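Appendix B, Record 12. Input sequence as logged:
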Amino acid sequence: SETMLVNQSPVTLDTPPIIIDSRTLVPLRAIAEAFHIAVNWDNEKFAVNIITGAESLFGAHTEKSFSLLNDLLKVDLPDFSQYYIAMPYGIMGPESSNEEETHIIIEKNGQKLALYVEELFNKASVNLGDDAKKILTVTKGIFESPVANGKVENVKLIPDVYEGDDGIIVRKALIRTQDNLLVYAAVFADPETFGETKDDCIKMAESIIDSIGEGTRQINRQPHEESLSGFTISLQQDYILTYQLGPDFSVYYIRKLVNVGEIQPYMGVYFGNFPSYDGTKSFIAISGKTLGQNINWHQEARTIDTDTQIETLVKINDDGWAQYMHIFVYPGTESDWNELKQMAESLTPEN
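Logged structural output:
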């Protein structure tokens, strides 16, 4: 079943429990978050970090300053009362945080807001306002002049019409980080209370976005090595690594930092026992080598463009939780394919 009961209230799991060797394995993050406990992945130590108490993103918050995007940024939130879930799922649902996105719930004096922050993997241009107009695509709305908080700068969009799916978008913003990269931020309001507290919600949203400042983490854009699931990969200039931890798998994403509007090539590396690709040959086979094995890359189209996928499947273990490595690449151009292929073939086991 994909449903569990928390104090007799049903909660939908992102993946059902599985039974391996007569033992039932359950998704740790979903269960921890149901009890207002944060779960983060420490890529350097290759370990799950469970955070409780005052350091948690959950429960009754006791600190005003919170880490965003694994401390790429931080935000000083207004004083508020307690953890709140307006809806079971969606933008007003449970909080979460990783290197790609952070989602924090805020409640104060009946105002119920959600702060959503997302890493865009884009380089900022000279004019942040021009970038904002390209990325915060809207038919109506007013852009404010840039506001600086230390080395961090934002341009806010004031929408003429407040609307959203399961939360009302009060403010959008484009943020320039201390590394000159772009981050998207938005503050949502609970539709059930927004009409009664509209002016206060807008004022608080402005304050939240303007309080976003620099964190301690900086992006390494130089060529360097990264660790992933017991292997080492050599990243080239302007490529960065992020990851997704699942209940019985892990996926690492290697993305190239590009200017706004440019094709963004990336590669994913899956470790687990149930890859989405079975190794079947496709339109073109390209010979290669990784982990000391001769492999074939399978390209699904004759030419490389923005939709072309190239992938390979490598058996790395005969038993255990990660028997397969599935590498999938969306290069965009021949030049990017050569870079990504070279990085994929640099994979070596850690000592």
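The helical segments are 28-34, 128-135, 191-194, 198-210, 334-344.
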